[in-house]
User: Fold these one by one.
Assistant:
Number 1:
Amino acid sequence: METLQHLILHDMPDSEDIEAVKSGAHTLTYAAYHKRINQLANALLQKGIQKGDRVALLCKNGHPASTIMFAALEIGAVVVPVSWQLKPYEMTGILKASEPKALFYGTEFKEIMDEVLPELSSVRLIMETGTAYETSPVFEALFAGPDHLPEAETVSPDDTALLMFTSGTTGNPKRCMITHGGIYNYVSKSNSSSARMKNLRFLACHPIYHTSALICIMLGTFAGTTFIFTKDQDPVRMLKVIEEEKIQTIMALPVFYTYLLEAWEEHQTDLSSLIILMTGGTKVPSSLIQRYLDIGIQLAHGYGSTEAWGISTWVPEMGMDKAASAGKPVADVQVKVENPETREELPQGEIGEIVVHSPFLFKGYEENPEATAKVLQNGWFRTGDSGYLDEDGFIFITGRYKDVIIYGGDNVYPDQVEEVIQQIPGILETAVVGIPDQLYGEKPKAFIVTNGTQEITEADVIAFCKERLSAYKIPEIEFVKELPKNNLGKVKKDVLRKQAVHS
């Protein structure tokens, strides 16, 4: 069966000699790791968790998080990775929407969970796992049972494996359904990436709720990669881990590598073990790639999305003249550029919407057929990104047609920020747009119109947002008399973007 479940059951390495995961002082070989995955899978079945049930995961990077994920997938449950950057207000909304039957959370999130859990009626199994490095006794008790392969119901390629949130609004979040077949296809067809990761020592510092982190974990696990998990990304500490653990590869956002290089220039630690670094999630400056090449380290980058997983990659051997591109499509992925209005395919060099056909595509947004129909048409995914293909087949991204703001790899959805700001008494309307930011690529800015009945300051709005939104979603504030609109009354966000840039 061509499913992720089949890969976990039958194709995961089972070696006593290869280290699989390391968190702090705890190291598991692939044999021990697979044993714990089976033990937890059997425990989940015993607790009544079955195929199709949702298992929410709110844990920092560490072997508990990856063990829970693979155990749930092994029995056909749907894993719901939850961002630990979310405020209780946001977390309540997405957990209500996903209706988890089981929820695993790290000890550091107990205070948040005390606030969120009373709002959740679907949860039957609640488990505090301990920290990323030291598990709790109650969590460890789940591993006391049998370690044989679980007798779980078989999933089909079209069954959902991961439920990823591509929006964070509490009213109607978009739940992106990633299938067992899609992930199986990605793992089985990504031969070059898998070969590159075989037996490598991988620094897993990128948050496990990010698609790019999950891609690396999926590819690397079945290639026999050793994952050294870290629960933060402090650059000086990361340099020490790289040196001590002989790290060979990393996946992180461009901003991580900017700070890492600054720290290295001061501390001059040993980076000789590094073979290749990987990045993406937002535009990667060519100057950053060159700075790493200057010290003998390759920095590759990829282009993709939650809905499409990997679309394209660029590696240094493709040439620095193409470093500003998003690379070439990966195996079995077709990319074309269309006029966003007429859907006519455009010739090389002409800018239009990037459209993708891939065996890795998601199957849609759960319970949101309208949103699904807008982006999935005849087997092609409309990315919402504008760009073009050059004469050599490289993809160049020039902007976005959709409003999503990418802050250092994290998606900020204007409608969510607008929804929060609109709750402030005295605010008539607001529009949030992305503005350029030298370090993070983009950041949100809110244009606000008040009704004039009371004094509202920038500090008032920011304080209100801070209670309800993650730090990276807090916008710059500008009060205006009115918002520019078209004849249908729709806010002209392109005008606001230009206004923000010029100001």
Note: The radius of gyration is 23 Å.
Number 2:
Amino acid sequence: MNPRVERTSYEGEPVKLALIMQTGTEGDRIFPIEDGRTVIGRDGRCDLRIPMPSVSARHCEIALENRKAVLLSRDPECETLLNGEPISKADLSDADEVRIGPVTFLVSITRTTADGSTAMSIER
């Protein structure tokens, strides 16, 4: 089963992008990132909801911008971390770690090449 969602393009190639939350004994939880903007936060209207007090209502978002996946922090009071560093805006790459409040996600970017095959660099 491939839980990732088709994106329009990334560096000229179609890609599938997902956030993976490793939950230990329960197995991984995979959250496909939809084309356009995906808002992440505590609010029930967010595309990806994290109902925890340390997560702000609209904590951050992931956007497709200039054919790149971009992570944008939306609340200056609550840090969004990329690979352990606070960011306001940063490009995402395969195997990056995104921390939102107490939750850490692994970024999965799978590219589809011209011959239809896929390339994924995360080793699990």
Note: The two ends are 16 Å apart (CA to CA).
Number 3:
Amino acid sequence: MTSTPPPGTPRPASDLDPAIAARLKRGADGLVPAIAQQYDTGEVLMLGWMDDEALHRTLTTGRCTYWSRSRQEYWVKGDTSGHIQEVKSVALDCDADTVLVRVDQTGAACHTGDRTCFDADVLPTGGVSPAGAGSPTPGTAPRGVAETS
């Protein structure tokens, strides 16, 4: 963990570039969703939350920093687990209300130990059973979703 105010204390002002801060569309809690994606495969790894300071730290340190809504503190992915996310690029979506962080993930991205936070509970769609949902026909994976073999 990194230096964090005590729970219930307002988060500190950020050194995020004012031009970036002005573009962000935050929720009522001051947060934006941040999607972590494996940079070379397109695999979606996890969803976290960032405020301005977490985004600033992510942009300036090269390591993903998130705001924990449950613990009310900043956390750098991998500081305790060793499963780091090395930042390759950061982008805002077209509405500037979601951050996409392309990373090189070391180890599991999910706190459960799974490679991604989306591995354990695949839902059936359009007649595809959950057992088959993780194994698309080669060449048919949606854009941004890595095929597995």
Note: The two ends are 35 Å apart (CA to CA).
Number 4:
Amino acid sequence: MHPMAQAPCPVGYGAVTPGNHEFNYGIETLREFEEQCYFPLLGAKALDAATLKPAFPSYIVKTFRAKGALRWRWRSEG
């Protein structure tokens, strides 16, 4: 496993955004890295050169509860 794919796991990263140096060795190498990650790679402006479609999702939505946080609900009355 690539050390940079393994390093964020104990820290508990929810997602990672590749920087310019992650693209240095080509998209194939970056895709291999992505397969080793336990978290998604995000990139709002990274396009696949072949398709011109987004190479990565631009965002994710995560729901979590912080220990000791107050519970509340928002309700719209219409």
Note: The first helix runs from residue 3 to 6.
